[in-house]
Amino acid sequence: MGLRLKFNLVLMAGLLAGLGLASLLSYRLAFDTARQQVLSEAALMSAQADAISRYTVEEVAPLIASQFARRFLPQSVPAWAAQTNFRTVQKTMADYSYRTVMLNPTNPADLANDWQAGIIDSLKSNADLKEIVAERNSPAGPILTMSRPIVIKDPACLACHSTPEAAPASMIDLYGAKNGFNWKLDEVLGARIVSVPMSVPLARAWNSFTIVMIWLVGIFAFVLLLMNLMLQFVIIRPVRRIAASANEVSLGNMDAPEIVVRGRDEISTLGDAFNRMRRSLANAMKMLEG
Known about the structure:
A 4-stranded antiparallel sheet has the order 1-4-3-2. Strand 2 (132-138) and strand 3 form a beta hairpin. It has 6 helices and 4 strands, in the order H-H-E-H-E-E-H-E-H-H. The chain folds into 2 domains: 3-11 and 207-289, HAMP domain in histidine kinase (Helicase, Ruva Protein, domain 3); 32-194, no CATH class. With 290 residues, it is an alpha+beta fold. The two termini are 45 Å apart.
């Protein structure tokens, strides 16, 4: 096995190990960045929905409260207002969604399905849990969901949801008397679930990772070529000249020219040492002949 092959095997092993470590780190960085981008979008959507809900409670509901005796207006319900506003967004961003789901909703359209009910149960079982972030698959690709609990803190909010008898007759006429009652204060009743598609950020992350890897492979290939050129001109070629000269001397050719090795490295030191040995051997041969 030649020196070049040994050198390349060791260098390739080091470069492959470095490439593997760099690919792992760049992969994690790219996809963690994509996930953080999706989380930021989900948090922004949730904050916007909360702002709409607060505006409905503080500004809209007091203006239309006087009409409840004649008919119940869902525009006064914070969850209805937030979801209705977001449906406008979904016309151009169909894969994004915001849902307010409950185990016992007044409006049957807000009834949680199986996976949503599982999230609500998790929030109910841990009172200190303020948020659940999870991923699920869909026909459009992976979806990130951010879920936050719905908890009634204001006793006034229970006026319509304690018993059917205490609720406005207009609300009973609209939604019936079977659902949306017996709510309790400080109990997790449901969840506000924001869903954000991950396909586009993940595709961007994959493209970024691919570009980084192409550059890394190109850099490592350039380093390998450069090291081989250095090996050829700095080590292999001078060593071959020294070996050829040593072969001439071993055959008795003392008239062979001395080796010229420029520089102050170990190879030049070896060349100088060989030249001194050759001169000493030549002098010894002359003395023996005399």
